[in-house]
Amino acid sequence: MKISCVIPAWNEAKNITTVVNRVRPLVSETIVVDDCSLDETSQLARNAGATVLRHPINRGQGAALQTGNAYALQNSADIIVHFDGDDQFLAEEIGDLTAPIISGQADIVFGSRFLGKPTNLPAFKRYFILPLARLFNRLFFGIKLSDPQNGFRALSRRAAEIIKIENRAMAHNNEIQFKAFQNKLRVVEVPVTVIYHNFGQKMSGGLKIAVDLLISKIIK
Amino acid sequence: MLQQIIALVIILFFVFRLAGQKIKKQVGANEFRLWLIFWLVAAVAIIFIKDIDWLVKLFGFSGSGINFLIYLAVLALFYLIFRLRLDLAKMDKNLTEIARQIALNDKK
Lengths: 220, 108
Fold this sequence. Notes:
- The structure holds 2 protein chains of 2 kinds.
- By secondary structure, chain A is of the alpha/beta class.
- Chain A has one domain: Spore Coat Polysaccharide Biosynthesis Protein SpsA, Chain A (Alpha-Beta Complex), CATH 3.90.550.
- Chain A is 41% helix and 16% strand.
- Chain A has 8 helices and 7 strands.
- Chain A has a 7-stranded mixed beta sheet with strand order 3-2-1-4-6-5-7, with helices on both faces.
- In chain A, helix 2 (41-47) links the parallel strand 2 (29-34) and strand 3.
- The longest helix of chain A has 19 residues, at 123-141.
- Chain A is globular.
- By secondary structure, chain B is mainly α.
- Chain B has 2 domains: 1-47; 65-108.
- Chain B has helices at 2-23, 29-47, 49-58, 65-107.
- In chain B, helix 1 (2-23) runs antiparallel to helix 2 (29-47).
- The A-B interface holds A 33, 51, 53-57, 59-60, 63, 66-67, 70-71, 74, 166, 168, 215, 218-219 and B 85-86, 89-90, 92-93, 95-96, 99-100, 102-104, 106-107.
């Protein structure tokens, strides 16, 4: 079974070698999608043994993930894992995400920070921003997941063929979750660890995601 | 009367400008037609402003014809901004697809 790991990266020269070195032994192919970095991300990822695709202009994380998906599907991937390039996920948990797909229980597996694993998530985000995002997801998109914003996930080939990521910026997280439910894919959540080096989305970022999602409901 | 003349002169200025842009091929035929119709309708509305006053009253709205025209103009502007936003989003989507195809082709 071919497992491809897609890592979107933008100016990640500081972390990309470590991330690729940790992921590579656990998957069949590591695909780094360099979203037009200004630093040495591409070169370093290539040196570490990753397959590197490079956007000629910066298009955002969602666009980079879809480019990685398209490449992985062209190259016969059975499972595609999405993994961040900033070293905030644990590579050894990739197996936890792929297991439900390998055993035939799931089409898509989402990582969750709220299923028991320890987290250093700031209280404001944990008790205010994320519950709001969860409510927004449930009201507008019918998404019933414990973690509304988690980039660590695994997709079966079928799921990756069905879910075409169109939101090029951060709203792709919700889009993938929404399309998984909309297409009645078998969804499983597994606990994952997220190590915060900085504190991710700010409130304004969350609002931008909400606006992007509502616009994407209008534009087809 | 003086206000109507000033408004018509301004419209005439924009129509000449539009014609100049068409001659220099800076606007397409459809866009030229759209804006020409827009300015002609505006000119007609200004010439017959008293009749619009009457029409507005007939439909039971308060305020004068000129207010009504301003409301319509604001509505038109909202619509144009909405259309622009949709067009921009579509272009943005196409740009992403081009960037993706270049990245995939470079790898082949």
